[in-house]
């Protein structure tokens, strides 16, 4: 469904600051795969998501979605296939617009008629039902400005906006990292439900190794722009966070340098 073949990405090429962010990376996601991505600081995780989303283009290699070569298709043209939720609850929503208007915008992203029609009463009912299903206390607040919502509420809305349009691919970029533990857990649960209910193919970057082991059916560990270790569902089930840390040490001959993980644990 998603295929990355031999991707290379270098920043500041040919200068003293040259940085090989991605090196010979290949990864295939089958329909319905939910892959968690972990790795040390600067391993290339965000760069990887940015290339899948079309924010950055690779220097070498090919990216395809549903066998269509999208390597150089710009972000706005990929938006109809891809939903993305960022770490920052302020990203991905328009704070001065209401919940309803934000949801209409999300629809408009994939469906031009959605923008022209505005929010019909049927659509309103649909939004309300979806928010009720999410159980985040937003169903009767369709007219509330998004800027007034808490971080957790915003992330729930961002998740809804990213998935409401049934994207082919969902990208989660540490989307629970900025939340307190209780809210993070709530959003994690909602995420699992939304992905399962819609059978969404998902790529999720996280610094929380426990989360990376618990969620999804595959795990990928990155370092220095490369995938250095992969685990399938069965292998993941049998691993602990300590096993992952030791695996990294064993493969790279150095400790996993991840400030956020070290701070969390
Ligand atoms: N726009 C950019 N310009 C220059 N260098 C960049 C840019 N984006 C990323 N890099 C560099 O590429 C490397 C990979 O960065 P990336 O942000 O993808 O890592 P990451 O795994 O997401 O890290 P972290 O977990 O710390 O967020 C790093 O060395 C980073 O400094």
TrEMBL record:
Pfam families: ABC_tran (PF00005). PROSITE patterns: ABC_TRANSPORTER_1 (PS00211), ABC_TRANSPORTER_2 (PS50893). The keyword Cell membrane applies. It comes from the Bacteria. GO terms for molecular function: ATP binding; ATP hydrolysis activity. GO terms for cellular component: plasma membrane. Keywords: ATP-binding, Cell membrane, Membrane, Nucleotide-binding, Transport. It is a peripheral membrane protein. It is found in: Cell membrane. Residues 2-249 form the ABC transporter domain. The keyword Membrane applies. This is ATP-binding cassette domain-containing protein. It comes from Pontibacillus yanchengensis.
């Amino acid at each position: 469904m998603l295929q990355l073949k031999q991707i290379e990405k270098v920043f500041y090429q040919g200068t003293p600051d040259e940085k090989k962010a991605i090196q010979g990376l290949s990864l295939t996601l089958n329909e319905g795969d939910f892959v968690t991505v972990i790795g040390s600081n600067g391993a290339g995780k965000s760069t990887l998501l940015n290339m899948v989303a079309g924010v950055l283009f690779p220097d070498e290699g090919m990216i395809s979605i549903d066998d269509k070569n999208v390597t150089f298709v710009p972000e706005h043209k990929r938006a109809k296939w891809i939903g993305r939720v960022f770490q920052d609850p302020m990203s991905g929503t328009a704070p001065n617009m209401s919940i309803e208007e934000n949801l209409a915008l999300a629809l408009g992203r994939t469906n031009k008629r959605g923008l022209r029609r505005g929010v019909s009463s049927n659509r309103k009912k649909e939004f309300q039902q979806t928010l009720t299903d999410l159980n985040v206390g937003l169903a009767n607040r369709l007219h509330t400005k998004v800027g007034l919502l808490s971080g957790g509420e915003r992330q729930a809305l961002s998740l809804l906006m990213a998935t409401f349009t049934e994207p082919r691919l969902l990208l989660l970029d540490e989307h629970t990292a900025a939340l307190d533990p209780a809210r993070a857990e709530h959003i994690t649960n909602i995420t699992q439900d939304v992905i399962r209910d819609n059978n969404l193919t998902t790529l999720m970057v996280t610094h929380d190794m426990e989360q990376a082991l618990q969620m999804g059916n595959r795990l990928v560990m990155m370092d220095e722009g490369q995938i250095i270790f992969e685990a399938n569902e069965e292998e993941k089930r049998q691993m602990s966070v300590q096993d992952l840390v030791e695996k990294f040490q064993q493969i790279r001959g150095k400790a996993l340098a991840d400030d956020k993980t070290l701070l969390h644990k």
